[in-house]
From TrEMBL:
It comes from Mucilaginibacter pocheonensis. Thiol-specific peroxidase that catalyzes the reduction of hydrogen peroxide and organic hydroperoxides to water and alcohols, respectively. Plays a role in cell protection against oxidative stress by detoxifying peroxides and as sensor of hydrogen peroxide-mediated signaling events. SUPFAM superfamilies: Thioredoxin-like. InterPro entries: AhpC/TSA, Peroxiredoxin_AhpC-typ, Peroxiredoxin_BCP/PrxQ, Thioredoxin-like_sf, Thioredoxin_domain. Keywords: Antioxidant, Disulfide bond, Oxidoreductase, Peroxidase, Redox-active center. The keyword Disulfide bond applies. Pfam families: AhpC-TSA. This is thioredoxin-dependent peroxiredoxin.
Length: 153
């Protein structure tokens, strides 16, 4: 599994979005991308995080950023999540866990003494050349978009 750091080239990927459309990171060449990894659709923390990006979406677009969310949920789950919360951006279905593994966010977690594998909530800010400029590992779910805005000001 990769351990990425700021200054590294962001791993390219190709997967389906919530509409069944094939999307690749390389489709965004020349654009700044906020790539955020979250554990599960329609759970309290993930909903707060996604809605934060939704609420500041126009500000992020005006600063030249595209927003892409990634979780291991399937396209159908993403579509339901997008519709329920009116999310205006792409949600990638990483069913085979290739993207979370490439970005080093598929990790061992521990809840109530039980160990399991899951997605570490992480945000990558990727510049137009495909280079990671920032990595946020301590994501504030309620203010995730503000964390990004503070870094890109």
């Amino acid at each position: 599994m990769a351990t990425l750091k700021e200054g590294d080239k962001a791993p390219d990927f190709t997967a389906k979005d919530q509409n069944g459309k094939t999307v690749s990171l390389s489709d965004y060449k020349g654009k700044n991308v906020i790539l955020y990894f979250y554990p599960k659709d329609d759970t309290p923390g993930c909903t707060a995080e996604s809605c934060s990006f939704r609420d500041n979406y126009q500000s992020l677009l005006s600063k030249g950023f595209e927003v892409i969310g990634v979780s291991t949920d399937d396209e159908k789950s993403h579509k339901k999540f997008e519709t329920k919360y009116n999310l205006p951006f792409t949600l990638i279905a990483d069913n085979d866990k290739q993207i979370v593994e490439a970005y080093g966010v598929w990790v061992e977690k521990n809840m109530y003494g039980k160990q399991y594998m899951g997605t570490a909530r992480t945000t990558f800010i990727i510049d137009g050349n495909g280079v990671i400029s920032h990595i946020i590992t301590k994501v504030d779910t309620k203010d995730s978009s503000q964390q990004v805005l503070d870094l890109i000001q």
